[in-house]
Fold:
Amino acid sequence: MQKSNVNKVVLAYSGGLDTSVIIPWLKENYTSCKVVAFIADIGQQLNDINEIKIKAKQLGADECYVIDIKEEFVSDYIYPMLKTGAIYENSYLLGTAIARPIIAKTQVDLALRIGADALCHGATGKGNDQVRFESTYAALAPQLHIIAPWREWKLKSRKELLNYLKKLGISSNASTEKIYSKDENVWHISTEGGILEDPWNIATKECWTWTLDPLDAPDQPENITIKINQGGIISVNGENLNPYQCLHNLNVLGAKHGVGRIDIVENRLIGIKSRGCYETPGGTIMMTALRAVEQLVMDRDSLKLRDYLAKEMSYLIYDGKWFTPTSKSIQSAALSLAEDINGEITIQLYKGQSKAIQKKSGNSLYSREFATFGEDTVYDQGDAEGFIRLYSLPSRIRALKNKFN
Structure:
């Protein structure tokens, strides 16, 4: 599609430096096109959404829509992800990655509703988000044209973006001395860029936003109780809450104790390694609680399958494949496995750590009578002899064959 043929574009607008440049850039380069800014409310706290909306209009957006999707985000995306156990490269709780499918879906829905013929995002040509946004666009509305400014314009760095805005007389909160890329939603906040681009540099206080430094956290541990039903958190400290409220409350509790900080180098989908400081306090607590109940309830084969599904799902989410048959199948399997994941957990929060110190479940397969080191009347230890002979039979046959050959 030629630029002159684009009549209306919906931009996923965050209020950050990149998308703030994109609005005037679109007006300058797609001259006959109406620019509609779309702001997804996914629980971000750093910036006032009303101020972001005002800023979008000041930058030249013809229309601006704010759509609150934070409760849907937690219940329909985060909770299903939690049931799969997905963690990317054994560290990253997928805070940015899991938000992209719902943002892109809502953007598509808005575009179709208002008759737009194009979609626009601010992801760079080096990152994962371009794939995540555009894979969702392709799955839900392949007929819409895609504008990816970082792959079109001649601006090569965020320093040049600042200069572009300066020439237009537009102020920005970012600076050439401290250009951090932050992504925030109710599940996590990430910080990238700046001094973090050198992995030898120690992350400074500016690299952390939500959580207290574990060294400065309270000297006394805090115990909290969590109830789980079918793999979902339903109660915190005896108070029944919806998924969003559970996560919000656990974020507050976890942040106070410095829980959920990671400083990692990860493999991006396109092959570049990147470093980020991620904070997921409530999510870390949720993962701890769910895994504790699974230890009680899941048999060995079920847990093995869940672990396999977790790794596969982590790649699907990271790679932008939420709206695919494979993703749907894994979620269905995880939902089935989670049917008996009910229980109550006591979590201890202390100096950056989240530990399950008490656990119980009506579906627990743990039996003190069988596991005890004391005397019991339910297990005949002599039965193990026959089991071991059969279990080790292939090794025995192999050894005998080698001996006589």
